[in-house]
Design brief:
This protein is of the alpha/beta class. It has two domains: about 160 residues, Glycogen Phosphorylase B (Rossmann fold); about 160 residues, Glycogen Phosphorylase B (Rossmann fold), CATH 3.40.50. Helices cover about 40% and strands about 15% of the residues. The protein has 14 helices and twelve strands. A six-stranded parallel β-sheet has the order 3-2-1-4-5-6, with helices on both faces. Strand 2, helix 3 and strand 3 form a beta-alpha-beta unit. Helix 9 packs parallel to helix 10. The longest helix is centred in the first third of the chain and has 37 residues. The radius of gyration is 22 Å and the shape is globular. The chain starts with a helix and ends with a helix.
Length: about 400
């Protein structure tokens, strides 16, 4: 059965690659139009593309702060629409272009409209720091920008079958930053990239996101509360601690410590959050806040408990204690944090010999839609003990 699923997975990857290459070929027609339209116009300014997930963005903000000090001239951020509005409130760039990444992959009219907007800026330099393949998104934007200098990461192309797209997109750059396979954590990767880009060594330092606005959710005003984030990136159920355990943990903390549980998540997680809030007697805030508001809710909370998702990285950025339930699939890539970070999220994990499997579990299939053993084997007692021993409650 598992062999059949693996074969079907490879077929699916091949179909997606063929579809992506077809779209890239179609883009070439529009590329010629943009090229002849803009070829004689002068180039100016620098753009940086950041289209990955919310957690990745907050992990990268310390790097953005360093880049702003090195780039005093016009600096434009091309950002995922999930956090573009929040990015506009930050002082690290002069302008933000918002990108709907789903439309960018699926809608040709939207793609070409966005490509036209970016090309009309006539950037002298465009930077795409992501080290994984982004053929239809960030890499395509680099290609269609027509920038004089197109800088990216060489990335990991050691696994040929899964990185055909990276090998193709690397040809769209005229400068590729070498990728060190020995560097594991995202924070170290970010620092390594800008160190090579600016040709000088940057130190790894903890980042603190200063308060830019005051926001108190009306349901939380005057309460001593902690936050539960039961979701995971891309709604991957195999990375999510069971909701029954989140509910049991929440009830225990509320009973023994007298704090109010507030359950948070995206609009797609509303049903999950509502169930946990009902079981704990807490408050459901899912889908009710923008990113900037969520940042301040996290900043004002006693602590955060969640899976390896954006919430714990936001908590780290605003110096709120966080407890992260993490599996072994990519252990060390995001959680635990490196030693240089003061007050990092506390990792809670169940060690297994199969760690670092890249979420290709030998015990369960992703299609089973339940947590993998490295997640589900974490007990309520293990999490409560970490929270209780932290002396923050």
């Amino acid at each position: 059965m598992k062999k059949l699923v693996k074969i079907l997975g490879l077929i699916l990857i091949a179909c997606k690659l063929i579809k992506a290459l077809s779209l890239v070929a179609l883009d070439s027609v529009f590329y010629l139009y943009l090229y002849f339209k803009n070829r004689r116009k002068p180039k100016k300014g620098i753009a940086l593309i950041k289209l990955d997930e919310i957690g990745d963005f907050f992990l990268w903000l310390g790097t953005a702060e360093k880049m702003r000090r090195e780039i005093p001239r016009s600096f434009v951020l091309i950002a995922n629409s999930l956090y573009a509005s929040f990015a506009k409130t930050l002082p690290y760039w002069d302008e933000v272009i918002s990108v709907d990444t789903k439309k960018l992959e699926r809608s040709i009219p939207y793609r070409w409209q966005l490509f036209g907007i970016v090309a009309n800026y006539r950037f002298e330099t465009i930077i795409q720091p992501t080290h994984v393949s982004s053929l239809l998104k960030g890499d395509s934007l680099v290609r269609m920008s027509l920038a004089k200098e197109r800088i990216g990461s060489k990335g990991d192309i050691s696994r040929w079958l899964f990185n055909v797209s990276k090998r193709i997109s690397n040809r769209w750059y005229n400068k590729l930053i070498p990728f060190d396979l020995t560097i594991k954590h995202e924070l170290h990767k970010n620092t390594a990239f800008i160190s090579q880009f600016f040709c000088r060594k940057f130190e790894n330092r903890a980042f603190c996101l200063e308060r830019s606005a005051t926001y108190i959710h009306p349901l939380l005003d005057g309460l001593n509360y902690f936050l539960i984030f039961p979701g995971a990136s891309a709604n991957a159920e195999y990375k999510m601690w069971p909701k029954e355990k989140f509910a049991a943990l929440g009830k225990r903390i509320m009973k023994e410590r007298g704090l109010v549980a507030a359950v948070c998540g995206s609009k797609t997680e509303r049903e999950l959050c509502e169930w946990i809030a009902k079981e704990t007697g807490g408050i459901n805030l899912s889908g009710e806040t923008e990113i900037g508001e969520a940042v301040e809710i996290i900043r004002n909370s006693k602590f955060v408990v969640g899976n390896d998702s954006a919430s714990v990285h936001i908590a780290a950025a605003v110096k709120t204690p966080a407890f992260c339930i993490v599996g072994g699939g990519a252990f060390g890539a995001f959680i635990p944090y490196p030693e240089f970070w003061q007050e990092p999220p506390v990792p809670i994990y169940y060690n297994m010999p199969c760690y670092h499997c890249s979420w290709r579990c030998i015990y369960r299939l992703k299609s089973e839609r339940i947590a993998f053993p490295c997640i589900s084997n974490i007990t309520v007692e293990m999490v409560f003990k970490k929270v209780n021993n932290s002396k923050i409650i």
